[in-house]
Fold DNA 5'-3' helicase.
Amino acid sequence: MLLDKSSCDALVCAQSMDRLPLEAVLGPGGLLATTQPGFEFRPGQLEMARAVLDALQRGGHLCVEAGTGTGKTLGYLVPAILCDEVVIVSTATKNLQEQILHHDIPRLERALGRQLRVVLLKGRNNYLCLYRLARFEEQGRLPGLDEVHHLEVIRQWSHTTLTGDRAELSGLPEHLPIWAELDARTERCLGQGCPHYAECFITRARQQAREADIVIVNHHLFFADLAARRSDYGAFLPDYTRVIFDEAHEIEDTAASYFSLQISNEQFAELLRDIAQTFIPDAERARAVRQAYQAVVERAAHFWTFAQKVCRPASQAGNRNRAGSGSDARGMLQASDLATEASGYTALAAALDQLAEALGQAAYQKVGNFGINTDPALLRLESRARQLCERLLRIVQAQDANYVYWWERPSPRRFSLQATPIDIAALLREQLFHQVESVVLTSATLTADGSFAFIRSRLGLDESDELLIDSPFDYKQQARLYLPPDLPDPNHPDFTEAAVNEIIALLDITQGRAFVLCTSLRHMRQLYERVREKVPFPCLIQGDQPRSSLIKTFQAEPGAVLFGAASFWQGVDVVGPALSCVIVDRLPFPVPSDPLVAARCQHIENQSGESGGNAFQSYSLPQAILALKQGFGRLIRSRTDRGILCLLDPRIRTKPYGPAVLRSLPPDLPRTGNRDDLRKWFCNVP
Ligand code: SF4
């Protein structure tokens, strides 16, 4: 990173970094205030930094909810720098990782006048595998001209890149099918048996991470690594005793996905393709592999065809297979669905077992009279076949009551079966909170109704310090919560029409410049279709462009209105008047028919004691509150922003849980049900 000596060198040199007080960096007149134009002292940020540093130095866990505008990134980065131990910083997305590395760290380096040892690591599939590249070139199998060109670009780049990070290939399209053949994902890696091990980008990244003081990862990589530590693949991250999770409200689902078992038609196809392309010198052993291979090809084709017939979308099956979020993408799986003679799963498992056996035999070659050579590529294929066999049996038989079994069709050609732990708390308690000395969880949305109890119980965090920092924004002056008085219940047939009329009236007040956040894709489309015909503002909808370019278009088009579902409720940062209104169609309760949600709710209903019994109170309501707070967080991003939050769902006024939802929004946020008053306030009419 940049080393840009500042006028503050004398102060920094006068004391070692670990003894530099936080106030000297973040305080009024501190290093950031005096060297970084635009830095503004924020008492909440300093308070947060003190608590984080205390947890990191002393050990022990900490939850910090830092309201929007606290400056939480510096609030945890500065203590991470001042702490004596290696700190892992985990963010929700790759974009946030990049922002920390390319924006916040250079700022801190300039302020502190010294270089920081910070490394960014991404998931392994972001890095080029030199072994796969060499094999791919040897085989020379490229279906089209585009791929010939892409391979040539990648080949040239592989000689010059220091990181092997695919993000450097900015000239190539985002969707690059050839990359799936070349990336360094764990299950294909030969480890120390690889002929390219010494110059491998994963080996280098791991080495750099070992020498760093701060390692920036994302939640996917962190939990993939945590789960891999138990397996024979081993760890990617260096050993650590301190972890900070930003956007920590997201880690339950991410952790659950990495502690899941999964098999897919794509995994089978990839394994078979890799076997077909592997040379086996011994003719007899090659024949045995070919025979076993052919049996797997036939039985896998039967099994996946059968599975896709049984696991039908909601529109074609009974309620049990209903999919969530208005899509037909996923549904519940029972043992009786596929653990049958007709599915042929036992025959497939037997064929996989034979294939693994044949690959294992082929991996050992006699050399001369006494020597034996092992082929790491064949050993890796053997292990993949065994793993698929084991997972197939465990998922299809669906015997473990701690797991929910489900199917997913993420795209028309991809179909997967999964087993996910229903309650991730016990796993995280044992493998994270009991193993790591200090874990800091932070986000703008960790509390529901003023309490951290929900997030802590979901994650298995039994003991922790807690800190709640209010946003420094003046919501009394900057925002209004508008609750339309006359809308019907969202399940009433007239709701959508009434919602459309409210949206049109609101857009007239704010002259467009709004997000319409919806809880289902179907309702998002309905509102979009009806509103766009009647308003003079450009209307955009999720799915028409990639998310990042949609946000750019929204910012560039005067008066634009964006209709979005799940992914727009959080992580979108539009500062200024381009976003002056956030309209929420319904309270964002989790979809009860989603297999994971249904299993979690059932699990809670089956429990007794303080946390058990009432899935709505213990799970659905707090989830909805956190999601609503995230949605509101899109509106006011700076001290000069002004805007309206409108909740079209009347249940916030009519249902007993309404007050708990309202209490979770900022207490100084004025509320109105009168649109004329709203117009006067927004237009500054006295
Ligand atoms: S060590 Fe693994 S990731 Fe690295 S080049 Fe070899 S096979 Fe690829």
